[in-house]
Automatic annotation (TrEMBL), chain A:
Pfam families: BPD_transp_1 (PF00528), BPD_transp_1_N (PF19300)
Domain ABC transmembrane type-1: residue ranges: 98-330
Cell compartment(s), UniProt: Cell membrane
UniProt topology in membrane: Multi-pass membrane protein
Family indicated by similarity: Belongs to the binding-protein-dependent transport system permease family.
PANTHER family associated with the record: DIPEPTIDE TRANSPORT SYSTEM PERMEASE PROTEIN DPPB-RELATED
TM stretches of this protein: 12-32, 104-125, 137-161, 173-195, 207-226, 261-289, 309-333
Entry protein name: Peptide ABC transporter permease
Gene3D superfamilies: MetI-like
Keywords: Cell membrane, Membrane, Transmembrane, Transmembrane helix, Transport
Major localization class: membrane
UniProtKB/TrEMBL annotation, chain B:
PROSITE patterns attached to this UniProt entry: SBP_BACTERIAL_5 (PS01040)
Keywords associated with the record: Signal
Record protein name field: Peptide ABC transporter substrate-binding protein
Organism from which the protein derives: Deinococcus roseus
Stored Pfam families: SBP_bac_5 (PF00496)
Residues making up the signal peptide according to the UniProt record: 1-19
Family: Belongs to the bacterial solute-binding protein 5 family.
Protein origin, superkingdom: Bacteria
Keyword Signal in annotation: yes
InterPro entries: Peptide/Ni-bd, SBP_5, SBP_5_CS, SBP_5_dom
Positions of the Solute-binding protein family domain: 69-489
Amino acid sequence: MFTFILRRVLQLPLILFGISVLIFGLTQFLSADIRAASFAQSEKQAQPAFIAGIIERYHLDADFFTQYRIWLEQVFHGNLGYSRTAHLPVVEALAIKIPATMELALVAIVVIALFGISVGILTAVTRNSWFDHTIRVLSIIAYGFPTFVVGIFVITVFYGILQWFEPGRINTILSLTAGLPTTDGFLFFPSLFAGKWDIVLDLIKHLFMPVLTLTFVISPQLIQVVRSNVIDVLRQDYVRTAKAKGLPTTAIVVKHALRNALIPVITVLGSILIGLLSGSIITETIFIYPGVGLWASQAAQTIDIPSVIGFALFAATTVTLINLLVDIFYGIIDPRIRYE
Amino acid sequence: MLKRAFLLSAVMLASVAGAQVKNPGILTDVEIGDWRTFDPADCYEQGCGEILQNVLETLYFPEGENASKFVPQLAAAMPEVTNGGKTYTIKLRKGVKFTNGQPLTADDVVYSIQRSLVLSVDGGPAQLLIEPLLGSTDLIRKGGKIGFDDIAKAIQAKGDDTVVFNLAAPFSAFISILASPYANIYNKDEAVKAGDWSGTAKDWEKFNNPEAGTTMYAKKPPVGTGAFVLERYDVGQNVILKRNDAYWRAPAKLTRVIVQNVSDENTRIKMLEAGDADLAFVNRPSIPRVKGSAGVKIIEDTTLSLTAFFMNQKINGQGTNYLGSGKLDGNGIPSNFFSDVNVRKGFAAAMDYDALIKDVLLGAATHPSSVIVKGLLGYSTNLPKYKYDKNLATKYLKAAWKGQVWKNGFTLPVFFNSGNTKRKGALEILKKNLESLNPKFKVEVRELPFSQVIAQGQNSQMTVWAGAWGADYADPHNFAFPFLQSSGNYPTQIGYKNTKLDGLISEAVTSTDSKKRVALYRQIQQIAYNDTPFIPLYQELFPFVQRDWVKGRLINPVFADDYYYTISK
């Protein structure tokens, strides 16, 4: 197991190197002046000397290898460049945006997992009942809904009409009166551990709408996977044997079926978590949630290359580590799986 | 039934709640875009300009809602102008203190203005000060023609309370520039103590042209004298301003201002309707959604901006395929296609301005005759302006290129920047009308990313494109120069030069006689009308959307968005 983990971790620098070369290579298809012009905030800012100055400063007309070498030298000094989109060094931008996304992703994945697994099991156990049919139809409908439609509906009802929840990450006035120096970084978990209940409650109020939207859009996929796997397992000989021995259904499902049905579910949850950690762009935009996804999409639109590379490196690291965790869980859940 | 009743009562509750002033004393302004910097020497955008306008102050300030009239702010009185309009002597107001408690001195003013010139950030606002003070349109660079000695001579302190500006030549728009957010004054001691430029020649080169957005004041504005101070900045999300209780005038009525970056329009509208936002940026197409909403008020006001078609008379065909065959054979255009004034006039007559304003801009714009838009000195409704006239367009295009254009036709790509539906609409109208004149005329409306439009414009690669210019300060020079002077922003891109115009523009900006200036700018507009280097399309009205409980909001087209000092709720 240790060798397996070590091998996977050692692959990471190679993956990151490959990604950075690829992104750098792709940007070379854009001419130096187009990349330089993307630094301008407005038509007016692009004065005649502006583009030439930017090309000179950032060596945009140098060959690929020179540009890549310059970037790599910066990286070895712990500098991923400056993010024009975040108006911060990329490392700082990642440091303040990742925690917000992580908090949303972790809360959302717990809700999605609890909801998706329980409803999936219920539909499997009550296969072909009205409940099963209703959930299946609703799942298909929810799965087909674009996130922005669900988001707009959720914000209209829960904020616009009912005014129960607010968009954003935290109420700005509360954050001021509570003496928070900033609304960046981790807020939920430190406040929870410090027992700052007014802040925790406010953060939950702000998380409700994005988490509801993500649960609505993402959980159908999980429900379907759980349902079909539990049904498959329930058909197995050992389940029939357990039934024949007179074990109650709950015990059969929990003790036998669920454990075996969980392996593909963990894979799905892993990929959902990767998606959530990479930032839910639309959800973050609609609910003004200051996470990494919104930043990355803005960076891509404005050809902010250091930011795009910084985000890609973060995303690749996330994918690798979560896949590694999923593989480790496989081994824990199913001892037949070995990684030697 | 029960559910409907529940929803209805919820809506009623919400509307009742919405009628009460939420968070009195705290103003929430939801906008789009964030804040690249708070450095006055670097900030050249509305977003940062708005924050600086509220925490820092200038020597002069626009009078109320009048864009062209100024009153002393940090100055004690209007300047004493001597030496044929080249020397401006300004006494400072007594009793003004910075938020760190230090009194305002002439040294602070000299330092603030000189620092902008010393930094001369690429794409920053320094050029606006360099032109009148140093007679150049280039930014200052180490080893260049202009050195620190020139900067030091241009602005000098005379005692503690007097500043002298020595202009390179008389410059009638100088007060407008001093009243703009690009001439903000801040505390020298704090800046020097924090490790910024020392204010002397010894280290000016070290601070020259820093990387944009990374200067000393990228995340926090310098210490100023304004009615508000920056309390907190949540990068990219919120700027929170706190009232300066020791302000030299009566303190502001608002205790705090929260400026939020909310990129989703629906969310901004919901926040406004819920009363969580007091001021909101709402795009024109969404105005019908908020019109009539309870508690929401819309104020329409003219902007000092001009959107136009630019026609390139010397197209650089390298690196693009925009010229097609490169000949007048119907499959392309020659690189100097627009050098024939008949082509330019034909295009101007083929544009349906009324349809553009009515159908695309939903009536919220006017059609200016030339560069001098409404609100500027020299604006007149009596000047000739282009009109949609099919017969006239036909006449010009038949005469163009000795009849070859009409006989062989052309294939022409025209451009707008991605997502700008107004510019796209304008080009679609031009395309439709030109193609209806002659089936051999083929116009392709193409969308390009914003950076590509800028880069290809700068490289003179574009053929025809729709672009816009907004005022830096309320003076016709700020439009005449970039549009018509041969070294200005657009003529360098479209290969336009008229030496007579160059002379007139120079004469108009150096003249101190306003009647003479009016006459000169009218003459300039007449020549521009005859030459048709570009086609003026529209001057937009901007919808300022707010809750009706917001009082005292001044709408001035030269403000960087809002000035919170006068606002209450």
